[in-house]
Amino acid sequence: MSYIGNEPPNIGAYGVESFNGGGTSFTLSKVAETATVLLFIDGVRQTPVDAYSVSGTTLTTTATTPSGTDNVTVQFLGDVVDFGTPSDNSVTSAKILDGAIVNADINASAAIATSKISGLAASATTDTTSAANISSGTLGTARLGTGTASSSTFLRGDQSWAAAGGDNTPSFLAYSTTNISLTNDTYTLPTYNTEAWDTDTAFASGVFTVPSGEGGKYLFWGGGYFALEADATSRLVWYKDGVVQDQFRAYGGRYGSVKDLPNSGMALFDLSETDTMSLYVYQDGSTAQNLYYAFFGGMKLIGV
């Protein structure tokens, strides 16, 4: 039969190849797939995948084929179509299966636009660390610092959450319940036989010692009632690390017939841990005088 133009292909004819048995690997004349090839051994059709598989031009059997001449027959059911490499910018997003692109498909050096990152403001184009480039409400408080964010904590400058407020500790108050005899013209450390409180167990034998990690500004107060003879005066003197602090003195004296006179004072010190503070008393009468109800207290200040 004659044709006008090219003779149409005989699509009903399938290629057949034969091989000598005795092996497990056979090279086909063209690229194929397991599904496009039928395998017969000594005329018996084999089950695909279980008995053989095809990759490219290689047919592999799962067991050694029986020896023989042309007893291994391959019948092609069609040709594998090679579509080739798509042209640049020819694949649209509609052709990509949703969810098919995973992290492993993205190169570690890929330059992803900041506008494509979830949580960034639409105007963000450069610095992803700028607060202005982060959309409002997208950054949880748990990401701002260490610790636990709550209604009673605040974010410190070192990026950690801390409890708000404070309780002015360490603090202490001690006093005497007995009269103290003061040698004249001598600075004396009173004996405080009772403690009202001592939050950090930092006060002992009339001396306060700044606990570890508790350096800062401290407010101290103290005094008592002095029984003075005529023309005698009393003094309160603060000692820091055993050294008189001359700028902090409180003076008192007898006036007329009044004998029992109060003398008290306050002082503010900037202390480091292990520094010590004590309050000494003095009277310059001609003989020993009594000190009634001596007291000494202090506390750490916060916010200063």
Overview of the structural elements:
With 304 residues, the chain is mostly beta strands. Among the domains are: 16-76, no CATH class; 171-300, Jelly Rolls, CATH 2.60.120.40. The chain is built from no helices and 19 strands. β7 (153-155) and β8 (161-163) form a beta hairpin. It is rod-shaped. The chain starts with 15 loop residues before the first strand and ends with a strand.
Report the CATH topology name of the domain at 171-300: Jelly Rolls
Unreliable stretches covering 5 or more consecutive residues:
none
The total beta strand count reads 19
The total of helices stands at 0
Q: What's the rounded overall pLDDT mean?
A: 83
The CATH architecture category of the domain at 171-300 equals Sandwich
Q: What is the N-to-C order of secondary-structure elements (H for helix, E for strand)?
A: EEEEEEEEEEEEEEEEEEE
Structural class: mainly beta
Question: Which features characterize this protein?
Answer:
five-stranded antiparallel sheet, Jelly Rolls, six-stranded antiparallel sheet
Task: Summarize this entry quickly.
The protein is mainly β and 304 residues long.
Secondary structure blueprint with pairings:
Layout: E1 16-21, E2 25-33, E3 37-41, E4 44-45, E5 52-61, E6 68-76, E7 153-155, E8 161-163, E9 171-175, E10 180-182, E11 194-198, E12 203-204, E13 207-209, E14 216-227, E15 233-240, E16 243-253, E17 260-271, E18 276-283, E19 289-300
Antiparallel strand pairs: 1-6, 2-5, 3-4, 3-6, 7-8, 9-11, 9-19, 10-19, 12-13, 13-18, 14-17, 14-19, 15-16, 15-18
